[in-house]
Design a protein that fits this description.
The complex is a heterodimer of chains A (189) and B (328).
Chain A: E1 3-5, E2 14-17, E3 20-30, E4 38-45, E5 51-57, E6 61-64, E7 67-77, E8 82-85, E9 92-95, H1 97-100, E10 112-118, E11 121-126, E12 130-138, E13 152-156, E14 161-164, E15 173-177, E16 182-186
Antiparallel strand pairs in A: 1-6, 2-3, 2-6, 3-4, 4-5, 7-8, 7-10, 8-9, 10-11, 12-13, 12-15, 13-14, 15-16
Chain B: H1 15-34, E1 38-39, E2 59-64, E3 68-73, H2 79-87, E4 93-100, E5 112-121, H3 125-139, E6 145-149, H4 150-158, H5 168-177, E7 182-183, H6 190-206, E8 211-218, E9 233-241, E10 244-251, H7 256-273, H8 282-290, E11 297-303, H9 304-312
Parallel strand pairs in B: 1-4, 6-8
Antiparallel strand pairs in B: 2-3, 4-5, 5-11, 8-9, 9-10, 10-11
The chains are: A mainly beta (189), B alpha+beta (328).
Chain lengths: 189, 328
C-alpha cells in the first residue's frame, strides 16, 4: 500500500485514518525554534463529512486512500440503491443511502453527477449545480402575481421542497440551485 | 517551441514595506551603536554546523583550489563564530544577517530569513531580558510586556503544576482534556507531550497577549544556555509577539567541556533517530578550551522578519521580504 510521509502533506491529499478515507484541507508545520516539528492538519472525513484536526509528529506516515472523483450518469433508484454509469466505459456503480445522503432529492435521471469512489465504491455524490424538476404540489396562489414578489413552498418530483414565486403552478418545471436549495427560474420547454 | 511563461519578477512586498524594513534595520543598528555594541559579520559558509537535534542545516559544495570539493554549511544562527570572537576578546557585538533553516515554508517561516543576534558581556538572564524589552520597546512602541516563568504558563493555561518534573501522562491527559488529537508520539515521550501542550494549548492563548517573555526553560531544552544554580531550569528565555516566537536568549553556557558534552549528546541523539550527524565546530571548542571557557555573557537571537511583521500588523512573512522564497 502506498504511504505518504508528513513532508508530502498538502491540501487535497487523500489518506486513510482509522480505516476511513480523509482529505487534507489545511496543513501547517509547527516548529518551535528548538523543538520537534509537527504538522497541524485540518482534514475532512469523506464518509461522515466531518472536519477534524490532528497533529502529526514530523516523519509520521499515513496510508494513501484510493479515492477518485469521477463524473457518472445517474440512471435510477431501485428502492435501496442509486445506480450510476460511466458514460464512456458503461461501467455501472451502485451508491448506498449513506453515500447519497441529502443529495437524493437532487438526483435526476440522465444527469451527470460527480461521484467520489473509494476503492471503486461510491462514498459521496455531488449533483450538478442546477437541476430541473417538476412541481408536483403547491398552492394555486394568486393568478395575477407575475412579478414573483411573494413566495410559497412547492414540492418537486423528487420530494424536495423549495420556495417558489406565487406564479409557479403544479406541472411547471423549475430550475433549482442544488447547493443553496433555492429556486432559480422556470425552465423553458 | 512555445516561449517560456513570463516570470513574475515583481517584489511580493509593497515598496512602502521595504522602506519600513530599511528603517527597522537602521533602528536596530542605532540601538546597538548607542550602547557601544559593535557590528560583526561572521561567514556564511562554515566547516561546521549546529548539531541541535531539531535544526536542519543546509549545505553547499565548494571547489577549493588544491583541496578539491568540500561541503560547507550555511548558518542556522551566527552563534558559533561570534562565540569564537568573544573568546578572542572582542566584547559586546551583534550580527544582522541571513540564516538558513530547512523544513518549512509558510506564512511564519522561510528557509532563508533574517536574524539579529547580539552578545553582552557580564549580563545575566534578568539583565538581558531587560535589554531585550528595551529594544522591543523602541521597535514596537506601546506594546505591553509581561514576563512569566515557564511553569507558571503551564499552571495558568493547562492546569499543570510541576511542568519541569511532571511525567508524560500529565501532559498527555491535558492534551486529551483540551480535545487535541495527536499521531505518532510515544505515550511515554514526556518531552514531546510537554512541547505539544506548549504549542497546541499555551501558544494559541499567547496570541491574545502582546509581548510575552517566557523564562526558565526545562533543562532538557537548555540548548547552550547555562543552568540555574539549583540545576532545575535553563537560564533561557523566549519572547512571543502576539503568540509568534520572536526571540530566544540565554545566559550563556561557559564551560568548554559542557559544550563538547552537549554537542556529542546531540549527535548521538541524531544517530539514534536516523538523522545525519553534523560536523562539530572544533574551532569553537578549541577557542573555549584555550580561553578557559566563554566570557560571562548573555546572548539573544531575534527574527527580524517577524519583528517587522509585528510592527506592520502583517500576518504573512512573505509580504515583509523583498522576494519570498518562492520568488527568490
Amino acid at each position: 500500500m502506498a504511504t505518504y510521509s508528513t513532508n508530502e502533506f498538502r491540501n487535497g491529499l487523500k489518506f486513510l485514518l482509522d480505516g476511513q478515507p480523509c482529505v487534507i484541507i489545511n496543513n501547517e508545520i509547527v516548529q518551535p525554534g528548538k523543538g520537534q516539528a509537527f504538522n497541524r492538519v485540518k482534514y475532512r472525513n469523506l464518509i461522515t463529512g466531518r472536519v477534524l484536526e490532528k497533529t502529526f509528529k514530523s516523519g509520521e506516515k499515513v496510508e494513501a486512500a484510493d479515492v477518485v472523483d469521477t463524473d457518472l450518469q445517474y440512471l435510477y433508484n431501485d428502492g435501496e440503491f442509486w445506480h450510476f454509469m460511466d458514460p464512456e466505459s458503461f461501467e455501472q456503480y451502485q451508491a448506498s443511502e449513506a453515500a447519497v445522503g441529502d443529495n437524493a432529492k437532487w438526483l435526476v435521471e440522465q444527469d451527470i453527477c460527480n461521484v467520489t469512489l473509494w476503492n471503486g465504491e461510491p462514498i459521496a455524490v455531488t449533483p450538478p449545480k442546477q437541476v430541473t424538476l417538476e412541481v408536483v404540489e403547491t398552492d394555486p396562489g394568486l393568478k395575477g402575481d407575475t412579478a414573483g414578489t411573494g413566495g410559497k413552498p412547492a414540492t418537486l418530483s423528487t420530494g424536495a421542497v423549495v420556495q417558489v414565486p406565487l406564479f409557479v403552478q403544479i406541472g411547471d418545471k423549475v430550475i433549482v440551485n442544488t447547493q443553496t436549495g433555492e429556486y432559480v427560474s422556470r425552465a423553458k420547454e | 517551441m512555445s516561449p517560456a511563461p513570463r516570470s513574475d519578477w515583481r517584489p511580493g512586498a509593497p515598496l512602502e514595506t521595504l522602506k519600513k524594513r530599511a528603517q527597522l534595520l537602521k533602528g536596530l543598528r542605532a540601538f546597538f551603536d548607542a550602547r557601544g555594541v559593535m557590528e560583526v559579520d561572521p561567514p556564511l559558509l562554515s566547516r561546521a554546523a549546529a548539531p541541535d537535534v531539531h535544526l536542519r542545516s543546509l549545505s553547499v559544495e565548494v571547489q577549493r583550489p588544491g583541496v578539491g570539493s568540500e561541503r560547507r554549511w550555511l548558518p542556522t544562527s551566527p552563534e558559533y563564530p561570534i562565540k569564537r570572537l568573544l573568546c578572542a576578546g572582542l566584547g559586546d557585538c551583534y550580527a544582522l544577517g541571513h540564516v538558513f533553516r530547512d523544513g518549512d515554508e509558510s506564512s511564519r517561516h522561510q528557509p532563508e530569513f533574517m536574524m539579529l543576534e547580539w552578545y553582552r558581556l557580564g549580563l545575566d538572564l534578568d539583565a538581558i531580558m531587560d535589554e531585550t524589552a528595551a529594544l522591543l520597546g523602541e521597535m514596537l512602541p506601546g506594546w505591553r510586556v509581561e514576563r512569566h516563568r515557564y511553569d507558571e504558563l503551564f499552571a495558568e493555561f493547562a492546569g499543570i503544576k510541576e511542568a519541569y518534573e511532571a511525567p508524560a501522562s500529565v501532559f498527555r491527559q491535558a492534551m486529551e482534556a483540551a480535545g487535541k488529537s495527536v499521531a505518532g508520539v510515544d505515550a511515554e515521550d514526556r518531552l514531546l507531550w510537554r512541547q505539544l501542550v506548549l504549542t497546541e494549548i499555551i501558544e494559541p492563548r499567547l496570541a491574545e497577549r502582546e509581548l510575552v517573555f517566557v523564562w526558565g526553560w526545562p533543562v532538557e531544552e537548555a540548548a547552550l544556555a547555562a543552568l540555574s544554580a539549583d540545576g532545575r531550569m535553563a537560564l533561557r528565555f523566549e519572547v512571543y509577539a502576539g503568540g509568534l516566537e520572536l526571540a530566544n536568549g540565554y545566559q550563556e553556557l561557559r564551560e568548554a567541556g559542557a559544550y563538547r558534552r552537549r554537542f556529542t549528546a546531540w549527535n548521538a541523539e541524531r544517530r539514534a533517530r536516523g538523522l545525519p550527524e553534523m560536523p562539530v565546530d572544533e574551532a569553537l571548542l578549541a577557542a573555549l578550551e584555550d580561553s578557559g571557557g566563554l566570557p560571562a555573557c548573555a546572548g539573544v537571537a531575534l527574527g527580524v522578519d517577524r519583528l517587522l511583521m509585528a510592527q506592520l500588523g502583517e500576518n504573512d512573512i512573505r509580504r515583509v521580504v523583498p522576494f519570498a522564497f518562492g520568488e527568490a
